[in-house]
Design brief:
Layout (H helix, E strand, L loop, with lengths): L1 H14 L5 E3 L2 E7 L4 H16 L3 E7 L3 H13 L9 E4 L2 E4 L5 H14 L5 H5 L8 E2 L27 H8 L1 H27 L1
Parallel strand pairs: 2-3
Antiparallel strand pairs: 1-6, 2-4, 4-5
Helix pairs in contact: 1-7
Length: 200
């Protein structure tokens, strides 16, 4: 009977995710102007993307402010980017100049890859901003050329297919699985103990 219990424990442990902490925080540095319509489109898109990737952190810099403008220029120099204008966005260590429909998939792909792969955080180092690499949870795999379209928030700020419950579940999914596995293991162990006592 003890061998059966040990075998069951090993089996359940193998089913538990290898790493509860597997996600990186993805820093997004967004340089924009209040008077820029394209910047506003990207801002809305980034907020919608954050609903899908709660491990994103968006740092916004309005470049009408002289200090923020200088920060943008320093960020550009890190990537040897001589272009001008806004929006200018750096996702982890990938810079993006401008914004259009075709860039949405590329930005999302950068967020996904940076969620699961460590990055230098070059702009973050310049700004003395770090990122965590031990976040709990997983992110849904990004599939190139998929039909998935991120639904951006409407005028009232709500996301059509987004609920707080689903977001919370995604965030704590690994812990929920771990606790659930532990409870199942405890119940099975108690049942086996009861069966073993009845034999005597």
């Amino acid at each position: 009977m003890k061998k059966a219990i040990y075998l069951l424990i090993i089996t359940v442990l193998l089913l538990i995710p290898n790493s509860v902490y597997a996600l990186n925080e993805v820093n997004v540095y967004f340089f924009h102007k209040k008077t820029c319509d394209i910047c506003e489109q990207e801002r809305i898109y980034l907020q919608a993307l954050k609903d899908r990737y709660p491990n994103m952190r968006i740092y916004s810099y309005e470049v009408s402010d002289e200090h923020n403008y200088e920060l943008m220029q320093e960020a550009r120099s890190i990537f040897n980017d001589t272009r001008t204008g806004v929006p200018y966005t750096v996702v982890a260590d990938t810079p993006y100049h401008g914004f259009n429909q075709g860039m949405k998939g590329n930005i999302q792909r950068s967020v996904y890859l940076s969620s699961t792969n460590k990055y230098e955080n070059k702009v973050g180092q310049m700004l003395n901003l770090t990122y965590k690499d031990d976040l709990e949870g997983t992110v849904q795999e990004y599939k190139e050329n998929s039909d998935y379209v991120i639904e951006e928030k409407g005028e009232n700020g709500t996301h059509p297919n987004y609920t707080e419950t689903s977001s919370t579940f995604k965030k704590y999914r690994a812990s929920i699985i771990l606790i659930g596995s532990g409870l199942v293991l405890l119940i099975v162990y108690l049942i086996l103990k009861i069966v073993e006592r009845r034999k005597y």
